[in-house]
Design brief:
The chain is of the alpha/beta class. A hairpin with a 4-residue loop joins strand 6 and strand 7. Helix 6 packs parallel to helix 12 and helix 13 packs antiparallel against helix 14. The longest helix is centred in the middle third of the chain and has 78 residues.
Length: 534
């Protein structure tokens, strides 16, 4: 069923970061469902591979990671846990990648004789890059599948910032290993370089080649939840985080460089040393100017986003007002037509003409009521079905119920439908109720109650009519137009009418449909026999 619901939405969103949170997965499918169970089993397998790779990847001589720039870069370039967990991050979500990456790195730290408290911080520092990716891609609409140059450029930029963030772990490593300033500088530079090269030259091509296939598989087996609208807080947090990481990176580079120079000055002539110190002051000034420019750019970005948000809110307000005005005018026009039909009903003496006018009046009312509800509420795209159907049933009773001594009892839970579905559903409900009122004329003097039950089960709306007296037949109707309308409206809702009869000659009529956009009710109607399954 996951490959059927919301296909259009999932296709349009494919390539964007769409996490599959643990909480949603367990609540929606349960831990022991086949799909969720296989997914967790595959994740545990990758977790084990990531964890065991650390044991294999641990160098025999830790000193090689403190003195060799090439050794550190190669270690980070092909570090399996980071590689595997980045794919889990993009394809499934943050927690899927964070947990194995953190525990694997924590294991690596313990294996290098790092104290537990430092190992905990070391694991967090290394996976900071994953947090950067999650935060930035959650707040933007770029595709991680890299289908355009803008997607690729954005990915490389975020990869650079993420690598800088994760390189903070090298400072913890250097402190615990008691490295010299020169060795610390080598470790720090090699760390972020290796991590950056892994993301760009290993992760990126695989995401490009396999990303869309992974998204299709995810859509085939699961109903991926839509990402909630990103608030300004998320956008501001992303900007502040990126600016902070870049600022810390510049300060770290400047500080480590200054310390390295001071260490070198101890063995340098005093006259030459003073000139070098003077030059380093220039570098320090350049670093602070860079940080100032960076902060200014961050504040400008926040200000720009705030300005865009205000403009967007104003445009939405204007469009909502325009939509409300349109719905109001449509409603008024339909009320005018409805009033004219009502006058005709009172002035005609022909029973057949009066009946047809009543049916037309009821149809116009059902459509006009949707527009009335829409312009009266802020959510212009949704219609409250419980309120709408209640007024619709009352109007049908006024037009037809008194003549046939029929009373309708409505049991409807609060439901919201899009305006397209609401109009189609209202017209179908109106035609069925009208059809019910015109049946069994021989029992005109007997009062009867027809119960209408409308329930929402997941994404499915179920409507049931109980208490209909037999005979009730769509195959030989008095008016072919009524059957044609019921048939066409049923197809638009992608449903069929199911009819059952009990021993007391009472008929139950039922139909169900999924909550999703339908085709317009103004399409050409193609006459066919009623769709009824007895």
């Amino acid at each position: 069923m996951g490959n059927q619901l919301g296909t259009e939405d999932s296709t349009s969103q494919r390539g964007h970061w769409r996490p599959l949170p643990w909480g949603y997965l367990l609540e929606r499918y349960g831990l022991f469902s086949k799909r969720a169970g296989l997914l967790f089993l595959g994740w545990i397998l990758l977790f084990a591979i990531s964890f065991l790779s650390v044991i294999y990847w641990i160098p025999n001589d830790w000193s090689s990671l403190t003195t060799s720039r090439k050794a550190i870069s190669l270690f980070l370039l092909f570090y399996p846990p980071l590689m595997i967990c980045n794919f889990l991050l993009f394809w499934l979500g943050f927690e899927w990648g964070f947990i194995p990456a953190y525990l694997s790195t924590f294991m690596l730290a313990l294996a290098s004789d790092m104290p537990v408290q430092w190992a905990i911080l070391f694991g967090i520092a290394v996976v900071l890059g994953m947090a950067i990716f999650s935060l930035v891609y959650y707040s933007t609409r770029f595709r991680y599948t890299l289908r355009s140059l803008s997607d690729l450029a954005f990915f490389v930029g975020v990869a650079l910032v993420a690598s800088m963030a994760s390189s903070l772990g090298s400072l913890i490593w250097s402190h615990v290993q008691a490295l010299t300033i020169e060795q610390t500088l080598i470790a720090w530079q090699s760390w972020w370089t290796g991590a950056f090269l892994q993301i760009v030259f290993i992760n990126a091509p695989i995401l490009f080649l396999v990303g869309n296939r992974a998204e299709k598989l995810k859509d085939a087996f699961f109903e991926v939840p839509e990402r909630p609208d990103v608030s300004l807080g998320w956008v501001y947090t992303s900007i502040i985080t990126v600016v902070t990481v870049l600022g810390v990176f510049i300060l770290s580079a400047e500080k480590l460089g200054a310390l390295r120079i001071q260490e070198a000055l101890r063995t340098t002539e005093s006259s030459l040393g003073s000139e070098i110190i003077s030059a380093t002051q220039t570098f320090e000034m350049t670093a602070w100017i860079s940080i100032t420019i960076l902060l200014a750019a961050g504040l400008a970005g926040i200000r720009l986003v705030e300005s865009w948000n205000k403009t967007l809110k104003e445009q939405i307000r204007i469009k909502r007002a325009l939509i409300a005005e349109i719905h109001d005018r449509v409603k008024n026009n339909m009320q005018l037509v409805s009033g004219l039909l009502e006058l005709q009903m009172h002035n005609t003496q022909n029973v057949f003409v009066e009946r047809e006018l009543r049916k037309s009046h009821s149809r116009i009312y059902s459509m006009g009521k949707v527009h009335e509800q829409t312009y009266q509420h802020e959510e212009a795209a949704d219609v409250k079905i419980d309120v709408y159907v209640n007024s619709l049933v009352k109007q049908v009773e006024v037009n037809f119920g008194d003549d046939q001594n029929i009373n309708f009892e409505l049991n409807c839970v609060p439901i919201k439908l899009t305006i397209n579905q609401a109009v189609t559903f209202g017209l179908l409900l109106n035609e069925i109720l009208t059809f019910i009122c015109r049946q069994k004329k021989s029992l005109k003097d007997q009062s009867r109650v027809v119960t209408i039950g409308i329930q929402e089960v997941g994404d499915v709306i179920r409507t049931k009519f109980e208490g209909i007296v037999a005979p009730f037949d769509f195959d030989h109707p008095d008016d072919e137009l009524d059957v044609t309308l019921i048939n066409k409206l049923s197809r638009q809702l992608n449903t069929t009418l199911s009819k059952e009869q009990n021993s007391e000659k009472e008929i139950t009529l039922e139909f169900s449909f999924e909550k999703k956009p339908t085709s317009s009710f103004m399409e050409t109607w193609i006459p066919k026999k009623a769709i009824v399954n007895s």
